[in-house]
């Protein structure tokens, strides 16, 4: 296939008929997120508290993989109504009470996902909403980046229209070699998601950047089998780019570390005396402390951006 815009190749590679997110092993077969394993158990507690604070009894987990976080939520909070949304059919082993909706993929949302009274969690969704990639050429002209099926890149036409306007407002780039991941597609996806809620809280969780921390050469990256690998749109690897979270215009954007600390999740080491009086309890407390430490590590998962918008019925 001839070179085409990264945005199109990216979409096919993730959500097409043979796309990465449709593979049998699911995303968890290639990488671990905060939603998996012991991390997911603690994250489920966090989500439950946020739902309580928002005054809702439903949680919608958008782009939820194979429902790993929903399983933790069901165990921790069986009182909550849980809805999972992803591009695949309902996974086996998902708790029976969990509702499942099939998503078209990318920024597209199921038609049934409307008028929500819920905590809507989009955990590592926007970073895999494909967007336009552009690069400043040797003459200082910002051009769209094209890509072949084997990952070979070339520069196409000068960037124009709404994408160019977004760059001017949010990510000015003038130095030859500078790259931009144009956030307009993510902004529109976020706005559509926010508009689907009538009350509650909408949250997007992703690695992100703001105007003060824009990466000069972009962040487009590929992962396969737990490793960073070549950025090739072949459907065999995840393709992701960090999110310009300030352009989302959410009510607030804070780090994961700040959110967990605000809710009282601290990585406190248990009293050593407990190792004698309650050794099993000590081991459990130590494990939990280590998990919270990982989730709040400012240089790792704790650096995730949480973009949050609150809703009151009639004012989405």
UniProtKB/TrEMBL annotation:
Key words, A-Z: Methyltransferase, Transferase
Any GO BP: methylation
GO MF annotations, alphabetized: methyltransferase activity
Gene3D superfamilies given in the database record: 3.40.50.12710
Range of residues in the leader sequence: none
Listed InterPro entries: NDUFAF7, NDUFAF7_sf, SAM-dependent_MTases_sf
UniProt protein name: SAM-dependent methyltransferase
Organism from which the protein derives: Knoellia flava
């Amino acid at each position: 296939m001839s070179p085409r815009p990264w945005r199109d190749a990216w979409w096919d590679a993730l959500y097409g008929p043979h796309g990465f997110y449709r593979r049998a092993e699911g995303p968890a077969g290639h990488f671990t997120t905060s939603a998996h394993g012991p991390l997911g158990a603690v994250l489920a507690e966090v989500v439950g508290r946020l739902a309580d604070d928002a005054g809702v009894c439903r949680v919608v987990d958008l782009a939820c993989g194979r429902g790993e976080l929903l399983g933790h939520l069901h165990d921790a909070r069986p009182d909550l109504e849980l809805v999972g949304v992803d591009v695949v059919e309902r996974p086996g082993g998902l708790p029976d009470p969990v509702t499942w909706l099939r998503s078209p993929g990318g920024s597209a949302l199921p038609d049934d996902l409307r008028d929500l009274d819920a905590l809507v969690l989009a955990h590592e969704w926007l970073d895999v909403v494909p967007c336009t990639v552009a690069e400043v050429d040797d003459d200082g002209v910002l051009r769209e980046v094209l890509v072949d099926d084997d990952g070979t890149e070339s520069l196409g036409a000068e960037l124009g229209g709404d994408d160019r306007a977004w760059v001017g407002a949010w990510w000015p780039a003038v130095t030859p070699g500078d790259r931009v991941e144009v956030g307009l597609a993510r902004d529109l996806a976020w706005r559509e998601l926010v508009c689907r809620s009538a009350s509650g809280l909408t949250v997007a969780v992703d690695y992100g950047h703001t105007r003060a921390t824009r990466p000069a050469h972009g962040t487009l990256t590929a992962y396969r089998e737990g490793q960073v690998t070549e950025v090739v749109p072949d459907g065999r690897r995840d393709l992701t780019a960090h999110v310009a979270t300030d352009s989302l215009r959410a009510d607030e954007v804070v780090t994961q570390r700040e959110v967990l600390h605000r809710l009282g999740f601290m990585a406190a080491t248990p009293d050593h005396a407990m190792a004698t009086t309650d050794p099993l309890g000590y081991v459990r407390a130590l494990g939990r402390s280590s998990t919270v430490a990982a989730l709040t590590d400012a240089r790792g998962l704790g650096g995730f951006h949480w973009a949050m918008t609150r809703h009151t019925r009639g004012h989405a």
